[in-house]
Amino acid sequence: MKITVTGRKVNLRDNFKELAAKKLSRFDRVFDEDAQAGVVVTLERNRQTVEITIKSRGMIYRAEATDFEMNDALDQVISALGRQIRKNKTRLEKEIHSAALDQYVQDYLHTAEEDDSEYKIVRTKHFFVKPLSTEEAILQMNLLGHQFFMFRDENSGEINVVYKRKDGNYGLLEPDAE
């Protein structure tokens, strides 16, 4: 990484430049040699502001901190940059993994469609559908621990289905004449 240290309204000592280079060297494993880091130290009313900008492969990381001591401000900026880099790296990894997963699912679905065009029923269940009210059907569904329950409506005589929604409420499916 190429590091440029600049002082505005302040004369920088060599030991600060070396310290800044040493602290920025912890990011060498993340950035390649073409990365450019600019460190700017500004003195304003007895307060030191340290600003670091890192440019690498079109990405720009920037952090700034102000403190009474420039070494303390440098520590704060390095910490903030570390958080930014970790956050961005995690986000990129998630995007790469999700893209790979999407590609895998897409490939799997295409091969499954080409190989097996019929749906495969693995189990058939028969049970008596007795007339119930909607409330009784919900109670029965909850007793069984199911997500849905089919029943015959006691008023209309039609087959209905109650189901549990993601928000914790219940839904009712009724047949329509049309």
TrEMBL record:
Its main location: cytoplasm. InterPro entries: HPF/YfiA_ribosome-assoc, HPF_long/plastid, RHF-like, RHF/RaiA, Ribosom_S30AE_C, Ribosom_S30AE_C_sf. It comes from the Bacteria. Residues 117-172 form the Sigma 54 modulation/S30EA ribosomal protein C-terminal domain. Keywords: Cytoplasm, Translation regulation. It holds the Pfam family Ribosomal_S30AE. It is found in: Cytoplasm. Interacts with 100S ribosomes. Required for dimerization of active 70S ribosomes into 100S ribosomes in stationary phase; 100S ribosomes are translationally inactive and sometimes present during exponential growth. Belongs to the HPF/YfiA ribosome-associated protein family. Long HPF subfamily. PANTHER family: 30S RIBOSOMAL PROTEIN. This is Ribosome hibernation promoting factor. It comes from Caproiciproducens faecalis. The lineage of its organism: Bacteria, Bacillati, Bacillota, Clostridia, Eubacteriales.
